[in-house]
Amino acid sequence: MSTDAKVRVAMSVNGRQVSAEVESRTLLIHYLRENLNLTGPHIGCDTSHCGACTVDLDGKSVKSCTVFAIQAEGGSVLTIEGMAAADGSLHPLQAAFHEHHGLQCGFCTPGMITRAHRLLQENPNPTEDEIRMGISGNICRCTGYQNIVKAISAAAETIAGLKKKEAAE
Questions:
Q1: Which of 71, 72, 101, 124 is deepest in the core (most CB within 10 A)?
Q2: 31-59 average pLDDT score
Q3: Listed residues 26, 51, 82: the one ending a domain
C-alpha cells in the first residue's frame, strides 16, 4: 500500500484540457502513458539519457521521465500524438522522417521528432552541425542519425516554404 499523497493535476495535453488524481511522485511519462493512454513517448532508460520520453512542456523540450506530473500543473504538453493536424495529415517533421527514412526501429522516433520540433521553433534554419547538437540528448540505438539529420533539414525547408506561402496570402 502506498503512503504517497494523492494530488490533482490539470494541464493541457495536445491542446486538450485533462486532469486526474495521481500520487505526488507520479512521473509525467507515467501520467501520459497510464492515465491518458498516450504511448508515443517511450520509457527507454528511466535515467534521462536516451530521450525516448521527450515531450514539449511550456515551450521547452523535457525528458518526461525526470519531471513529476505535478510540475506540469497548469502547463501545456505536446507529445508526438499532438503533432499531426486535426485532419490526420502529418506534421512536416513526421512526413520528412517517413520520406527520408529517418526511422528504423522507431523507438526513438517520437522523442526525436518532438525534440526536433522544439529545435526548429528555436532555430528555423539550422545547419547540419546545429541539428546534430540540437538532438544530441536523444539517442538512436539503430544509429540512423544521418537520415534523421536529413529529415530534420528537409522539414525545416518545408516549414519555411509553408510560412513564406502563408505570408504571401
A1: 72
A2: 95
A3: 82
